């Protein structure tokens, strides 16, 4: 294994973005690389497994395998900054890690380009039951590599019944939201929800959780379905350029992430029932024609509700109207490719315990 010497100026994000552009970090194919001489290396191993993929393994026994991923969409900068701060803090010895941790920076070329993706939306390519095996563009090859890293990380941690597996895939939303921070919980195919995980999402400052109604190609769905991980797409505010995110907006989120990393997060202290609204995804609208339009203004917030029978969007000859009182929109985007999801429709869940299935907890 090749080695990389940590110095006080080491910065995980800068290192990842400068790879291939600087002669002092070695060729891009010299993986894995063990990080040496960091203050934290006295009590953990830090190994760069691939560009933007860094595993921390504490020397002492752990019972949790945690994945923190960001930049699955390249222009969603706040999560990248959060993951970078946490990673640098661990290496500098400022955070006493007590879980196995895999940090993943998703779409590196898209970060450099300042765009959501280069050729294709990476967060539609993680299909556990119809896996990509050959790539025809950068996102497809990255999806194949990231899925292999997730497989290896969870499988090498130990059996699912002996470990807690968590994957938090951190994003930001394109438009403003009535809930500044919220999470999308993957479809569980009838398996039970975990109250401790809903409480964790609340602890991360999410005030809404959307329960998916179907299989998808998202990164969090992959970890949930293929590895039984407690997983979610966590939306942390709105897309902003690097440097324009206010760290104060992420104080609670980051405090909870730090607590999770040092095994000090106590989910039973979180009053999620009063802090969090639950939504069921009722419909997923996929764009079918170039003649697709949204029937509301560009600055309409996520979670805006529509009156029954009012027009939400039009796709060629098909009109989508609100089917129940208070049906709400999230992630509307008329500019997606044909066949891709153009928006989700939501119903408010009035009996969260009943819907989540742990009313006796
Ligand atoms: O704001 C938007 O329109 C998109 C924000 C975003 O990237 N959301 C994720 C959600 C993934 C999920 O449904 O779990 C995405 O669209 O990939
Ligand atoms: Zn995103």
Automatic annotation (TrEMBL):
Task: Cite the GO molecular-function annotations of the record.
Answer: succinylglutamate desuccinylase activity
* Positions bound to Zn(2+): 73, 76, 171
Q: Which residues form a coiled coil?
A: none
The UniProt record lists the keyword Zinc? yes
The record places domain AstE/AspA barrel-sandwich hybrid at 275-347
Q: Which InterPro entries match?
A: AspA/AstE_fam (IPR050178), AstE_AspA_cat (IPR055438), Aste_AspA_hybrid_dom (IPR007036), SuccinylGlu_desuccinylase (IPR016681)
Protein name, per record? Succinylglutamate desuccinylase
The organism encoding this protein is Corallincola platygyrae
